[in-house]
Each structure stands twice: as C-alpha cells, then as structure tokens.
Amino acid sequence: MSKVLESRSRFIKKRSIKCPVCKRNAHYLLAPFCSGRCRDINLGHWMTGNHHISIPCSKELLNIANDDVIAT
Ligand SMILES: [Zn+2]
C-alpha cells in the first residue's frame, strides 16, 4: 500500500468515519462510503433529487471553495 493510501486509511480509522448510507465503517478507497453499492445508492439520491444543496451558491462561497482546492 502506498504512503498516501496508508495515511488515508489511518485518517479514516482515527476519525471513525461512517458511511452516510448504512453507517458502517468507511472503506479507505471509497470514503466516505463503505462500498461501491452505498456510493451508487448515494449517487442515485442526488440524481433523483432526494439530495440537494439547500442554499444558493454565492460568489463568496465559490471563492472559499476555490481557495480550498488551491490549498490542497
Ligand atoms: Zn455503506
């Protein structure tokens, strides 16, 4: 396992990240999901409109998001 994946695996275990679909422990390759099945279920919720962003995206929020992307 590469150092990046080892670090990711430790982070997920340390934080006890749970799958948002079934609440089992997240898999380090699929985090925050535990499996491809749960990842697909979540995507289906977004595609059918069951999940949505509840506030309009302002220029200020976009700038914060862009800063986060640049910083990582
Ligand atoms: Zn799951």
Describe this structure in words.
- The protein has 72 residues and is mostly helical.
- The protein has a single domain (3-71), classed as Erythroid Transcription Factor GATA-1, Chain A.
- The protein is built from 3 helices and no strands.
- The longest helix is centred in the N-terminal third of the chain and has 13 residues, at 3-15.
- The mean pLDDT is 87.
- Zinc ion binds next to loops.
- Residues 19, 21-22, 24, 33-35, 38 line the site of zinc ion (ZN).
CATH second-level architecture: 2-Layer Sandwich
User: What count of structural domains?
Assistant: 1
Number of helices: 3
What characterizes the major β-sheet?
none
Ions and ligands: zinc ion
Q: Can you write the helix and strand succession as a string? A: HHH
Principal-axes geometry comes out as flat
Q: Which quaternary structure do these chains form?
A: single chain
Q: Report the end-to-end length measured between terminal Cα atoms.
A: 22 Å
**Low-confidence segments:** none
Strand content: under 5%
Extended strand count: 0
| Class of secondary structure makeup | mainly alpha
CATH fold group: Erythroid Transcription Factor GATA-1, Chain A
Task: Please specify the SSE layout and strand pairing.
Blueprint: H1 3-15, H2 36-47, H3 59-71
The structure holds zinc ion.
Labels describing this entry:
binds zinc ion, 72 residues, Erythroid Transcription Factor GATA-1, Chain A
